[in-house]
Amino acid sequence: MDIPRSTYRLQFREGMTFDRASALVPYLKRLGISHLYASPIFTAANGSTHGYDVADANEIDPTLGGRDGFERLAAALHAAGLGLILDIVPNHMAASLEAPWWRSVVEWGNQSPFARHFDIDWNRKLTLPILGKPLEEILGSRELSLAVDAEAGALTVAYFDNLIPLNPASYAGILSQLPVPLASEIATLASRADPRGAAEFHDELKELVCNNETTLHLQNALADLSARHDVLRRILEVQPWQLLGWKEAASKLSYRRFFEVTGLVGLRVEDPAVFADSHRLTFDLVRGGLVDGLRIDHIDGLVDPREYLERLGREVGSDVYIIVEKILAEGEQLPPNWPISGTTGYEFISALSHVFINSDLASDLDQAYGEIAVDQPGFAAGIRKAKMLLIEHNLAVEANNLLKLLAGVAGLQGDKIDERSLRDALCKILVAFPTYRTYGTTEGLNETDAALWSKVLFTAANRSEAPDGRTLAFVDKVFKSEVSTEAREKAAEFRRRFQQLTGPLSAKAIEDTMFYRFNRLIALNEVGGEPTGRETSLQRFHQAMTERARTQPHGLSATSTHDTKRGEDTRARLYSISEAPASWRDAVKRWRRMNAEHVTHLGDGPAPEPEVEWLLYQALAGVWPADLGEFDLPGDLEARFLAYIEKSLREAKLRTNWGIENGDYEAAVKAYGSNLLSPDNSPFLADFSKTITPFIRAGLFNGLAQTLIKLTAPGIPDIYQGSETLDLSLVDPDNRRIPDFASLARKLETSGLTQDEQALHDGALKQRLIALGLALRNAEPTLFSEGRYRPLEAIGDRSDQIVAFLREADDAVAVTVAPRFLLGLGNGEWPCRSYWGNCSIAMPDGIRTWQLTNIVDGATFEAGDPLPTAALLDLFPVALLVGKR
């Protein structure tokens, strides 16, 4: 297998095409990247900004350059010695009429050849939640009408821009009421229509309606018929689909979706035929040598991830590098029997927080936040509350489906358990789940999952207002399939759907709710992270890296992605708040007083409320330009900040949300945000800029340290587009902007790692450090892909401000030395030379006869003596030493 030495994540769409990416290959080569890591490139829904809403999994998107453009990109990469990793989406597709498979299912219902491709409940009609209000209101306001879609060759129901195809079996009943000659011809054609010959049927129908005058007559007749509400209602009743208001989706949807996104429908890739159909192009690209690795999106959405990965491996071969998007909770490890190289690396971000968070002052930060968030429950209690909110509202249909399955098992077995008791037990179990999911199959639960399930039941049983013990035991037996023969199929379906729900429930409750409610230190509010941050320590970081070297040395090490809540340098800066929580508290109090007149007092409270103010000042500090002149704010900063405010308020789901927007509240908080950045607010801007200067400076050095650690710790360093220099982005869509690659290329031409203030502030030093580190990884691939990980201890002055470790192979060693906790630096001071006093780092016995060279500045050292930190960091804040046997 060709293990990447590094990856560079590139987001296609929004102006990034294959030809534009091809032009970047020389830059990536100079930077030292070994593999381009591409976002999904398959044809997506019209206007897609990300590509995860795949409309055709077997076509490369023409808007990106199509198959020819992709082949040119692959050829350019391979000619330069670079590989290509492709992001694929097996869990879901776009529930869009642009998607051929979905359109077929809408038109033909369960007779469609693709009816079993999607995870649809065919015991009822397919639900289409596209209406802006209930159907009866829509009919009364004449917003629905029958129409000819001449381009598609179909009769449809029109709702604004949506032309929903009618089932051809219903054509005759409609056309028999139309006094136009063409009606009988179309009816005859429709009577012979077959879903497997749908293309021919539509082509023939297009021929019939190609005459504009004839089609106009037909259209006018259909419009007249549409005005008869009773007729239109009967036509709707005989369709294989049912129109819903979009707000009804949470309780009435008939298909499994991605999280709570009704526009994304689940695929049944557990079916071998669906697996083959949905991966044809992917396999063609791999077997044709165009693609060297695969990234699997949302692996936890699949019925049986292990079975899927094993089947995938058989198709693409053992030489293809495979990683999965899998969120690991604190202490959780990948299932050891998954045939993959690792994850996309969110757990690496969590591990880094142990380096840069000062947990000694955690109680001070708690107190400071507690003075603001007086009514805020603890984080764990908040998660439970958020999960219940989602179960009762956003994910109600999924929870209700589980309840029906439990009731079905009880009925088949003659167990008399009332629905209220079942619902209570189910909710308590769902709320108690501490990780994304278990992976039970027809073979049962493995030891790890059995222990997790037992822990969940114990937690549910021992909370206040515990569920009925007999009912809890019943759910336990159903989950383990310890049921009667007649009930086993329903029990198996219950477990499948339960396991597919706990992941979205955790993600939505934690990442998309609590991460916007619990704002103590938002640097910790990261995917897979632990926002309380009470037990961060260097020891825990070293333990995590030791375990990482053992379990997934070839997994990606991410610091920024298209889904992170903020850019890596924003996070690195905000870590430093943990070093001075009292100072931050005092600053926020001062800023709140300065801006008190901009708070709007609404009927349901102030806008923004104090806790949201706390959030906004952190977010603004994180995104504040590092090299800002006197009030010289970037032109796009306000728009970016206001978009972040809107998303934060809606995700929190407290006074507004995506489903029911509170316009007055949102407008008031946005106005507050705009006033923060107004030139008329110069006293605040001056105070804010001066106050956060030390945090900015500490963050810049944190960013260099974070970068070196990523380059040398176990795992494959992943560089997200543009983050090779400063990544001061907010949550998406802010973090998906296309970087200025021409500027990045020019920066890379400048050489040297020196104490250059301008290069520190504009990210050039970070970029040069990446180029240096990647050059070493390319020269010593075995050292970093297989080398052992050993923590090193610093002793003497400021020893708590140093993180050091080595990577060791039989014939080579690399030593990483980086600073932390640098908020106390003086203005313009660098953490070099005498700053470190008598601090030193002892080398382990095995390498004490080796000579080490610091590749940052060329200095050499004998490993037999403790290495003086002042000498290691003489000219630059980080050191990377290399030795050969």
Task: Using brief descriptors, characterize the structure shown.
single chain, alpha/beta, globular, TIM Barrel, 14% strand, Maltooligosyl trehalose synthase, domain 2, 885 residues
What do these coordinates show?
By secondary structure, the protein is an alpha/beta fold. Among the domains are: about 150 residues, Glycosidases (TIM Barrel); about 160 residues, Maltooligosyl trehalose synthase, domain 2 (2-Layer Sandwich); about 140 residues, no CATH class; about 100 residues, Immunoglobulin-like, CATH 2.60.40. Helices cover about 45% and strands about 15% of the residues. It contains 33 helices and 29 strands. The strands form eight sheets. It has an eight-stranded parallel beta sheet with strand order 16-15-14-5-2-1-20-17. A six-stranded antiparallel beta sheet has the order 21-23-24-29-26-27. Helix 16 crosses helix 21, helix 17 crosses helix 18 and helix 26 packs antiparallel against helix 27. The longest helix is centred in the C-terminal third of the chain and has 31 residues. It is globular, with a radius of gyration of 29 Å. The protein starts with 6 loop residues before the first strand and ends with a strand. The model has no long low-confidence stretch (mean pLDDT about 95).
